[in-house]
Design brief:
alpha+beta; 17 helices; 4 domains; Transferase(Phosphotransferase), domain 1; single chain; rod-shaped; Phosphorylase Kinase, domain 1; Beta-Lactamase; six-stranded antiparallel β-sheet; disordered N terminus
Length: about 750
């Protein structure tokens, strides 16, 4: 493009004439975009000269502009041997831009094909020389990444992107709440403010190590979706070996790269100069032997690097717009607790939305490990007042693995001395270097595993310990800072509530399931008992009917025999014989009616309602039970209304009700020595709207306490009763629009009364 700027631009500061006319004559070429800023190569074709221009986007934050201004202010300290030099800072209506010298170099973030080992070593040596030059000039870059390394045609690598740089001496004096800075994919753990260290030159070496890893493997060692996960990866995850991505990397070279990206600054190279010497030695061996058989690091004891170490500080991390940056975007952010708040909110939402315990446990442990920067974590829940391991989380080269468990803890799982101290005191326990602790350092687990940073937090709800979270990081000391611990306690409090809620929810679901099973079983039992009760009633009825049928059968046999005798006489008495035959027919019909009534009651099939006289129903049942009444020496009387009013009902069902009430009355009077046994059955009409039928006996009566539950299913006062008869009677009468009552009789005993609506 010919121009991307319009309007007058003035030089804020420059080493030459860079004004509006100069800008208008430029040809612009976009090289790449790094977050909020774009990088261009501009050419002045008439003079065959070119520069690099860095321009913030129109909507870039003020921080992006401040970084350009800061980089330009460092220009006197940036030497051309190792840095791309700023030459002008211009300001206009479209924003600020910075002009830099350009030696036709290319940024090293685009790598179309893998580098050879020799090509990699040459590039790495040049990059280490540039970083060493910055450090010798007293500058801590804090944002080393491929796009800030510019290589020219001669192979010289120069640093750019000094917008986050600080003086080495100033780095150790920065406030503990200084903002996180760097690029998420490359920044050292101490730049994330997650460990108790200030950034120093070794932080730049970590970022350079991530860059070297990417050049060899073709990718970064970690992948993440947001700032919280990136920070966790740098603090706790072990990078996968380079051999996993590329098999031709000599082991000493891979070891050098992995040493650069060690979590603990003390385990890294201590200076870029030492790294530069080792890389040169590796290149010499490779060129001579086409192999790197061995390498003895020049600074293995760190004796020349003590001056670059900085005191430990308890630092915090704060981010805003957490998902706004890629792994390669430079950031410099303040706002003290934004990342912690985001982590808490994310975890709280995840815990709140889980209703299944195993998923809740996995979510809790995963969020805790990521937020705290732990390598390993255990969640223990208290069961029967003893701790039980419910989940184990382990960070590895492949990512985070969560294993659900259900086992008692032992000395192979965690320091038992730490666990029981926390459970007893209900207080968190934070240790920066457990191996060096006078008390816990003697724990067998600590000695076997070399535990460095450890944190143990109780899950407490209403003064009751529900469980314990144990976390450790053996890569670096001081990982679990005070601020991290306070946030984890907040998460632990939320977790305790969620775990208790899920437990109660599961208990409720189990109780509901148990109740459903019981209700299903109860309905089945009721149906079976109702059938048994009906069969019992039928058995009692059959015994009574057998007596009743015997009478017509005996009469029929007697009349038949008499008829034969009348006809066998010398003078047959035909009239007498016909009279006997008529009696036989009558008795046969009576027996048939008895059998039909029994069949109707026993079938319990669909009942068809029709208009009928209630007195006919009563008389029919009285006739059926007559023999039983006589055998028990009961005086049965009936007082039936003379009104011809009818009811709409099932004859069979009403017969069942009357029969059950009569048989109950006979049972009540048979239990005990009653001198006078009386059974009275009456029917009458009340206001021409209802017919009222009552069955009154002189038995033992009803206890007052039993009156309110007399019609409940399975309630009985009999020694052998099923408790279903009166419940069935009530359901029949209710279905017919009537009511069934029980009350004490006037002269002892009990009275049962039912009402039915009259049909006009």
């Amino acid at each position: 493009m010919s121009s991307v700027f319009h309007g007058p631009y003035t030089a804020i500061s420059s080493a030459g004439a860079f004004g509006p006319l100069w800008l208008e004559r430029l040809v612009w070429q976009l090289l790449f975009v790094d977050g909020e800023v774009a990088h261009y190569r501009v050419t002045l074709t008439q003079e065959d000269r070119h520069w690099r221009i860095v321009r913030p986007a129109p909507d870039a934050s003020i921080a992006a502009v401040r970084r350009l201004e800061h980089e330009f202010s460092l220009a006197p300290r940036l030497m051309p041997q190792w840095a791309v030099q700023p030459v002008a800072l211009l300001s206009g209506p479209e924003g600020t831009l910075m002009v830099l010298e350009d030696a036709s170099g290319v940024a090293l973030h685009d790598q179309p094909e893998p580098l050879s080992i020799e090509g990699f070593l040459q590039r790495a040596i040049a990059a280490a020389a540039a970083v060493s030059g910055a450090h010798e000039a007293g500058l801590l870059h804090r944002d080393i990444k491929p796009c800030n390394l510019i290589q020219d045609a001669d192979g010289v690598v120069r640093l750019s992107g000094f917008g986050l740089s600080v003086d080495v001496q100033l780095a150790s004096q920065l406030p503990v709440f200084d903002a996180i800075c760097g690029s998420l994919g490359y920044m050292a753990p101490e730049q994330s403010r997650r460990i108790q260290r200030q950034a120093d030159q070794r932080s730049d070496l970590y970022a350079l190590g991530m860059t070297l890893y990417e050049w060899l493997a073709g990718r970064l060692p970690f992948e993440a979706t947001d700032a919280v996960e990136w920070v966790y990866c740098h603090v706790a995850r072990i990078p996968p070996p380079l051999s996993q991505h590329r098999g031709d990397v000599p082991e000493p070279l891979a070891g050098l790269v992995h040493r650069l990206i060690a979590k603990n600054p003390d385990d890294r190279y201590q200076s870029a100069a030492a790294l530069h010497r080792d890389l040169n030695e590796m290149l010499r061996q490779w060129q001579e032997l086409r192999d790197i058989p061995d390498l003895q690091p020049h600074l293995s004891n760190g004796q020349h690097d003590a001056s670059i170490r900085t005191p430990s500080h308890d630092s915090t991390l704060a981010l805003r717009d957490l998902k706004a940056w890629s792994a390669r975007t430079s950031i410099n952010l303040s706002g003290r607790d934004a990342l912690d708040l985001s982590s808490v909110m994310k975890s709280a939402h995840a815990l709140r939305d889980e209703s299944e315990q195993d998923r809740l446990i996995e979510t809790l442990l995963r969020n805790t490990i990521v937020h705290a920067g732990a390598q390993r974590a255990l969640l223990l829940l208290v069961k029967d007042e003893a701790p039980v391991i419910r989940a184990i989380g382990q960070s590895g080269a492949e990512g985070l693995h969560i294993e659900l468990a259900d086992r008692a803890p032992d000395k192979q799982h965690l320091p038992l001395s730490v666990l029981y101290r926390v459970m007893r005191t209900r207080q968190r326990l934070v240790m920066d270097d457990v191996c060096g602790d006078a008390y816990f350092g003697a724990d067998e687990y600590v000695r076997q595993h070399g535990v460095r940073s450890a944190l143990c937090v109780p899950l407490v709800k209403q003064s009751r310990v529900l469980g314990v979270l144990y976390l450790e990081n053996n890569l670096a000391p001081g990982v679990f800072t005070l601020c991290r611990t306070e946030v984890l306690e907040l998460l632990a409090s939320q977790a305790a509530i969620s775990l208790e809620t899920v437990r109660l929810h599961q208990e409720l679901e189990q109780e509901n399931a148990r109740r459903r099973d019981v209700e299903i079983a109860l309905r089945g039992a009721r149906a079976r008992l109702a059938s048994v009760a009906q069969a019992t009633v039928m058995g009692e009825l059959a015994a009574s009917i057998a007596h009743e049928i015997n009478q017509p059968l005996a009469s029929m046999v007697s009349n038949a025999a008499a008829g034969i005798r009348w006809l066998n006489r010398e003078n047959p008495q035909v009239d007498e014989a016909l009279s006997g035959l008529r009696d036989i027919v009558a008795q046969g019909r009576r027996a048939g009616e008895i059998v039909n009534a029994l069949q109707s009651l026993a079938r319990q099939g669909p009942h068809h309602r029709r208009q009928l006289l209630i007195n006919d129903v009563i008389r029919h049942v009285v006739a059926l039970t007559g023999v039983e009444v006589e055998q028990q020496r009961v005086l049965m009387t009936t007082h039936l209304t003379c009104s011809p009013l009818r009811v709409c009902a099932s004859s069979v069902q009403l017969q069942q009700v009357v029969l059950n009430l009569i048989l109950n009355a006979l049972d009540a009077m048979s239990a005990g020595d009653h001198v006078l046994r009386r059974l009275s059955i009456t029917s009458e009409v009340v206001g021409r709207d209802y017919v009222v039928v009552s069955v009154e006996d002189s038995g033992r009566g009803i206890e007052p306490v039993d009156l309110h539950q007399l019609f409940n299913a399975f309630f009985t006062t009999k020694d052998k009763g099923m408790g279903m008869g009166l419940a069935i009677c009530q359901s029949i009468i209710t279905a017919h629009g009537g009511h069934l009552y029980a009350m004490p009789a006037r002269f002892g005993g009990a009275t049962f009364v039912f009402t039915l609506p009259v049909v006009e």
